[in-house]
Design a protein that fits this description.
The structure holds two protein chains of two kinds.
Chain A: H1 5-19, H2 25-32, E1 36-41, E2 48-53, E3 56-60, E4 69-73, H3 86-92, E5 96-100, H4 102-113, H5 119-127, H6 129-164, H7 171-199
Parallel strand pairs in A: 1-4
Antiparallel strand pairs in A: 1-2, 2-3, 4-5
Chain B: E1 8-11, E2 14-17, H1 18-32, H2 36-44, H3 47-58, E3 66-70, H4 76-85, E4 90-95, H5 98-110, E5 117-121, E6 134-140, H6 149-159, E7 160-171, H7 177-198, H8 202-214, H9 218-228, E8 231-238, E9 243-249
Parallel strand pairs in B: 3-4, 3-6, 4-5, 6-7
Antiparallel strand pairs in B: 1-2, 7-9, 8-9
Helix pairs in contact in B: 2-7, 3-4, 6-9, 7-8
Classes of the chains: A alpha+beta, B alpha/beta.
């Protein structure tokens, strides 16, 4: 499994770099320092180990030493683990097995999800205050415009299909049509019965 | 490898007096110390970093442990161990060669790695540490240059704590025949030329290629470790056996 070393090192470098953009990270790492979590995913075969050190996370696919928490599960189950209410159900369904401290895994995922990176600040450190401000403003304006554009185009498409091209009916028209149909069917039934009576 | 009772020992393909090898190896490393890191990257295409990282991942290192990195040279392993043992742990970088130790010390200090690292000039055959001091001992690409390898393994055994482990990362015998041929061609034709070009020293790299061929193969080294007292000795061939990582425990 020598080949796993390079991608893991790259991922580790990226995660640690991102984590250290948040000034709160050292304090959070300190709380979990030395704790180790292993995740075995059935699809991947070999387990994956995360060790917390004072300076960041260490990721390894080779490390087979003892850990504080070992999670055995499947790839598809991972998103469900976010909600702790699901854990008991998953364990009962044999889709999840946790050995050791179950809180640790949640604390570790919180370490990443609580990450609060001040992007404008990071940008200004790299390219200077004014260009960063211009870029951030442009980005915010762009995002607002995109949102307006989305709402506008949805509205426009609806109008085109209903009013102009008349491919789709408006909701009121559809209800009216349903009611008319109902009435017509009732009339038809009545007429049929009437005819039947005449014939007899 | 020679019988330990004989008076001569291999230095690459040459036979030299036992008491001469140490100074000859010292000459080699004095000559390459300054360019050691860049040559490692050039010669191994950077793969030596992966081998070293693999070794660390196999070491079972934890916060607070005491680690001895023998023949640690320019401190690649020490740097990573230092990060992992934290301020409560200790890493000792030992090398017989003062020039290599100086390069290592400067490099680590420039990286901001201070506080839990000590530097000791030491001969692996006769380590200047008290018994049972270290949790982990590593020797990466160093054992091959030691005059009496068996004595060095025994000396490491003495300073290792019970429950501790030794990791030997060293060039070995490539297993696939095709790889072996390509590797031989590379070692004797390309490597010395690259040494000449980058470090201005073809001879040292000729020695490197020869010393690799004279180093015991995977199974021989395994039995040497067992003879020194290590238990549960295993090895992993890395990159087809060009390098092997041997692991042994002291119980």
């Amino acid at each position: 499994m020598l080949w796993t070393v390079l991608p893991m090192q790259a991922l580790e470098g990226l995660v640690n770099h991102l984590m250290h953009l948040d000034p709160e990270t050292p304090a959070r790492l300190q709380k979990l320092n030395g704790r180790r979590v292993r995740v075995s995913l059935k699809e991947l075969g070999k387990p994956f180990t995360v060790t917390v050190t004072e300076t960041g996370l260490v990721l390894s696919w080779i490390d087979d030493g003892s850990v504080d928490c070992h999670i055995v599960t499947e790839l598809a189950v991972l998103p469900e683990l976010r909600d702790s209410a699901n854990i008991t159900r998953l364990i009962k369904a044999d889709k999840l097995d946790i050995e050791g401290d179950p809180m640790l895994a949640q604390q570790l995922s919180k370490l990443l999800s609580d990450l609060d990176i001040d992007w404008p600040e990071q940008l200004s450190q790299r390219i200077g205050d004014v260009p960063a401000q211009v870029l951030v403003n442009a980005f915010e304006r762009g995002r607002a415009r995109l949102k307006t554009f989305q709402t506008d185009s949805q509205q426009w498409l609806g109008d085109v299909l209903v009013e102009e091209k008349q491919v789709l009916a408006a909701r009121e028209q559809f209800i009216q049509f349903q009611n008319d149909l109902q009435a017509l069917r009732a009339q038809l039934d009545k007429l049929e019965r009437h005819l039947q009576e005449q014939r007899n | 490898m020679k019988d330990s009772k004989s008076d001569t020992i291999d230095f690459g393909y040459k036979q030299v007096a036992k008491n001469e090898k140490q100074s000859l190896v010292a000459n080699v490393f004095n000559s390459v110390a300054q360019k050691y890191d860049i040559m490692n990257d050039v010669m191994s295409f950077g793969i030596h970093r992966i081998w070293k990282r693999y070794t660390i991942d196999c070491s079972g290192v934890r916060t607070g442990m005491k680690v001895l990195d023998i023949a640690g040279g320019t401190g690649d392993l020490t740097a990573q161990f230092s990060r992992r043992v934290g301020p409560t742990g200790e890493v000792v970088l030992a090398d017989i060669n003062q020039a290599m130790l100086d390069v290592g010390r400067d490099k680590l200090r420039n990286k901001g790695i201070v506080g839990n690292v000590d530097y000791v000039q030491a001969n692996a055959e006769d380590l200047p540490f008290e018994d049972e001091r270290f949790d982990i001992i590593t020797i990466a690409f160093g054992l091959r240059n030691v005059t009496d390898k068996q004595k060095a393994l025994e000396s490491m055994f003495r300073v290792l704590k019970p429950g501790g482990r030794l990791l030997v990362l060293e060039f070995s015998k490539p297993v696939p025949p095709m790889l072996s041929q390509a590797y031989d061609f590379y070692s004797f034709n390309v490597l010395p030329k690259m040494g000449q070009l980058v470090a201005g020293d073809a001879e040292s790299y000729q020695y490197l290629a020869e010393s690799i061929r004279m180093h015991p193969d995977q199974d021989t080294l395994k039995s040497m470790m067992e003879q020194a007292g290590y238990e549960r000795v295993t090895y992993d061939n890395l990159t087809g056996g060009i390098v092997a990582l041997h692991r042994g425990f002291k119980f």
